[in-house]
UniProtKB/TrEMBL annotation:
Membrane topology, as annotated: Multi-pass membrane protein
Regions crossing the membrane: 87-107, 187-209, 221-239, 251-277, 311-331, 435-453, 506-528, 540-559, 571-592
Main subcellular location of this protein, as a coarse class: endoplasmic reticulum
Biological or metabolic pathway of the protein: Protein modification; protein glycosylation
Organism: Podospora anserina (strain S / ATCC MYA-4624 / DSM 980 / FGSC 10383)
Name of this protein: Alpha-1,3-glucosyltransferase
Amino acid sequence: MTDCCQRHQKVPETRTWTSFLVEITTDSAIMAGHTPSPHKPRRKAKGAGGPSNLGHSISVESSGRAPSFPLAAFFWPARGSASQWEILPIILMVVGLFRWAASLWGYSGFQKPPMFGDYEAQRHWMEITTHLPITQWYFHDLQWWGLDYPPLTAYHSWLCGKIGSLIDPSWFALYKSRGVHDPNLKIFMRGTVMVSEYLIYIPAVVIFVRRFSRLSGVTSWSASISLAAILMQPGNILIDHIHFQYNTVMLGFVVASMSSMLAGRYLWSAVFFVAALGFKQMALYYAFPVFAFLLGSCFSPKINVLRFIRIALVTVIAFAILLLPFVLGAYKEWKQGIRSKPAPLPLFHGLAAYLDPKAFYYPIVEQLVQMVHRVFPFARGLFEDKVANFWCALNVVVKIKHLPAELLQRMSLIATLASIIPPNLILLVRPRKDLLPLAFATTAWGFFLFSYQVHEKSVLLPLAPMTLLLAGSQGLSKEIRAWVGFANILGCWTMFPLLQRVDLRVPYAVLTLLWAYLLGLPPTSLSVYTLDGQASFKKIVTALIHGAFYLAMAMWHVLELNLQPPSDKPDLWVVANVGVGAAGFALCYLWCFSRLVLQSDILPQALAGKRSKAKTN
């Protein structure tokens, strides 16, 4: 921990309160790139040159007093606070208020038969898990929103359904409740998202920001700004609290796993990541960096075989506990003789030749294979609907979706591995805690761009760790704010066709523009692209590239709103959205990867020396 952070936590007894307050004010001003008032001493306080989250080291004499972006201005009165606990309750109340206000809007599938939407899917899973035995959860009426998420989602649905049934049993009546749009049910369902998020995601983010900011030498005031920006991330609010899903539960477990890595609690990290995988299979986007870091920590700085064995055992035990209810349920039905006639396995057909359908283990195998079949639906194709990744964009130019499924799967596998192996090799060789957000983000971008069966909402996975960069060293600097902001706004923009189908234009516009305003981002402000001092080629190119994308997004909205596409090209605007989005996300991948390479010091010392010499010149 840096001297700056230590001073903000504890005041030595030999110092006077006056000198302490002067130092607090001076440090806060330096951190934000601003000076204290003129009557303060002009001498720089001892040790005040620690790392700053704003990425500036501006002298007290020459800097101004205005905050550099609106969110910093909102927290400006608390810049002298020595503890984050003064600000945390305000942050939690404000982000909760915005979430609940957003939830007043409609949801996916509202009064849109025959299948309605994601809201009905989540409600239906509460219905079947509370009325049917566990052995039927992955088999029951698969044509009507059959359960296709891992077991922890099913357990979560069971718990929510049990609580909801105590309030009004008709909400989850078997068969009779399909498509129900009771306003009180909507309040309950929205409440389950809010409570789940405040129990898992928000505590995980708070703890991660605290640990990561301390690791990076960031003051508590800057960490509070970063925390507010992360929790106000518009994509999560739009999808979970309006469109309706529980993505932040899975993301919360992932962030908890990352936070445990920061704390050196590797066994807990493994447990939390198993929970993330157990809630949503999309957590596989992060599996490679989790494996690379935990494995690297077993061999660096020294070989620790016992740690490796313990992590492996804990991981296996966590998966076993997750699956145990299904195993026990299948065994109980076999023992009681109430199971139906064995059906052919939907996957691993050759396995059936080695199994005895009358043996006690067969129904267990049947359950597990059916679960895998439902959770990994390879039959759905390379991509679902129109998603801004490489394959969907390529399909506009070369019709690849009609190629054999086996060929597409191989192409996807090769491209995905090519994009994710390099960043994870870096993390394996350099298992440093400060590299975690970059490694997670780069890998998730690779999965989103090239993997099989990607959905529009999957963009939330690379956005989550990339947004966590705000809490690190220079996290609120112009460069990082520009790239994190660009990725989030572009991500929300690519989800607009999904949101538009359920009449969510207004919350989309309000939440994205509000977040852009708070962080001083386009289209509300161009301050992140202003050149401080000497202009650099990198800054100019970044401003031009981002400017072109922002202009394209704005023009797209104007055209989409005012012009109907030609009758022979009804998806013209959606296809344009895919092309622009895929190109922008590829840039985000390259930025995260290049920053990971530079920050990891993996390059040869000669190249590092040249970079240092170039910076000096």
